Amino acid sequence: MSENQNENQNKLGDTSSDVTVPSETGTAVGPAERFQDPGVPAHKARLTDTDPRAAKRAERTVTFLFVLSILGTIGSIVAYVMIPPEGTTSSVRLSTLLIGLGLAVSLLGIGIAGIHWAKALMGDREFVQERHTLATQGEDREAAVNDLNEGLADSGVVGRRGMLKGAFFGALALFPLAIAVPLIGSVGGDWNISKFKHTMWKRGMRLAIDPSGRPIKATDVTVGSVFHVVPETTEEFRATHEWITEKSKAVVLMVRLNPEDLQTDQSPEGEDWSYEGIVAYSKICTHVGCPVALYEQQTHHLLCPCHQSTFDIADSAKVVFGPANRRLPQLPITVDDEGYLVAQDDFAEPIGPSFWERLK
């Protein structure tokens, strides 16, 4: 290939702005002639631009929304202080409901006010700023400051809308308190980690169906059946907030297998922990604490729906798949004189995922 051909090919591949293209008349056309600047579209005036009364209404609306946000923040703090989540289940629900409503009003007030402010009051004209090299001379700095002041004045934050400015900064300043106050109030909470090591199961406590609380006889459990189990308690205790806390740790999944399918039904010390093929294991996954309750009868596998950890019920609930690294703790069970299934004792190890100071 000759030098002239190489030179022509390089010219064809050049896409820089300096290249000129022949026009239909045969004259060279540069970039400025080939690409016309469409310019800025004509500004369409809004109602608030032409009607002072509409602008005033929009200002009052935005101010009202910011004030509503302030009231929502104050309401959530009052709900946290006046209705502590303790005692009964109803008080926990009421406290959570009121705090959540306060936070929702506070956030929605700020969000909707900001959108309405931008659409109705802030300037919506399009401007063209020519590119140039910004220097550090005093004239350029002064021009930049003037541009910022013009934009600030155009947004309506200061000057003629002082009430709107106060509501805006008040809402933004108070909202973090709705999150900070509960956090500060929880700093001095209960940090007794020994509560993680034990549940309410005790020797002789009957196994009951969740959520009815009806005790279970061994004769009610057929081979292949699955029961969701909690400790038997009084109806009054099940209506308290303490029951919610204790139940979350003590929930059990009970299954009856053919005794010959059990690869082990004894504790490490050789004690019998099952009764005629009936085994009971904690429902709290040892990975991150999700409820394990998907039982596959043919394989005797128990699946955690969160991260697919799989446990073998027939072999002391050991892990056969997934991220969990410990088996499910087994609840040792037997029957009482009336044939009801009862716990021999609490779990031999802490339930659920790992935590600090755990020995096992």
UniProtKB/TrEMBL annotation:
<keyword id="KW-0679">Respiratory chain</keyword>
<dbReference type="InterPro" id="IPR005805">
    <property type="entry name" value="Rieske_Fe-S_prot_C"/>
</dbReference>
<feature type="transmembrane region" description="Helical">
    <location>
        <begin position="95"/>
        <end position="118"/>
    </location>
</feature>
<keyword id="KW-0249">Electron transport</keyword>
<dbReference type="Pfam" id="PF19297">
    <property type="entry name" value="QcrA_N"/>
</dbReference>
<keyword id="KW-0560">Oxidoreductase</keyword>
<keyword id="KW-0479">Metal-binding</keyword>
<keyword id="KW-0411">Iron-sulfur</keyword>
<dbReference type="Pfam" id="PF00355">
    <property type="entry name" value="Rieske"/>
</dbReference>
<comment type="function">
    <text>Iron-sulfur subunit of the cytochrome bc1 complex, an essential component of the respiratory electron transport chain required for ATP synthesis. The bc1 complex catalyzes the oxidation of menaquinol and the reduction of cytochrome c in the respiratory chain. The bc1 complex operates through a Q-cycle mechanism that couples electron transfer to generation of the proton gradient that drives ATP synthesis.</text>
</comment>
<feature type="domain" description="Rieske">
    <location>
        <begin position="249"/>
        <end position="342"/>
    </location>
</feature>
<keyword id="KW-0472">Membrane</keyword>
<keyword id="KW-0813">Transport</keyword>
<keyword id="KW-1133">Transmembrane helix</keyword>
<dbReference type="InterPro" id="IPR036922">
    <property type="entry name" value="Rieske_2Fe-2S_sf"/>
</dbReference>
<dbReference type="InterPro" id="IPR017941">
    <property type="entry name" value="Rieske_2Fe-2S"/>
</dbReference>
<feature type="compositionally biased region" description="Polar residues">
    <location>
        <begin position="1"/>
        <end position="26"/>
    </location>
</feature>
<feature type="transmembrane region" description="Helical">
    <location>
        <begin position="167"/>
        <end position="188"/>
    </location>
</feature>
<keyword id="KW-1003">Cell membrane</keyword>
<dbReference type="InterPro" id="IPR045603">
    <property type="entry name" value="QcrA_N"/>
</dbReference>
<dbReference type="InterPro" id="IPR014349">
    <property type="entry name" value="Rieske_Fe-S_prot"/>
</dbReference>
<comment type="similarity">
    <text>Belongs to the Rieske iron-sulfur protein family.</text>
</comment>
<feature type="region of interest" description="Disordered">
    <location>
        <begin position="1"/>
        <end position="53"/>
    </location>
</feature>
<keyword id="KW-1015">Disulfide bond</keyword>
<protein>
    <recommendedName>
        <fullName>Cytochrome bc1 complex Rieske iron-sulfur subunit</fullName>
    </recommendedName>
</protein>
<feature type="transmembrane region" description="Helical">
    <location>
        <begin position="62"/>
        <end position="83"/>
    </location>
</feature>
<keyword id="KW-0408">Iron</keyword>
<keyword id="KW-0001">2Fe-2S</keyword>
<keyword id="KW-0812">Transmembrane</keyword>
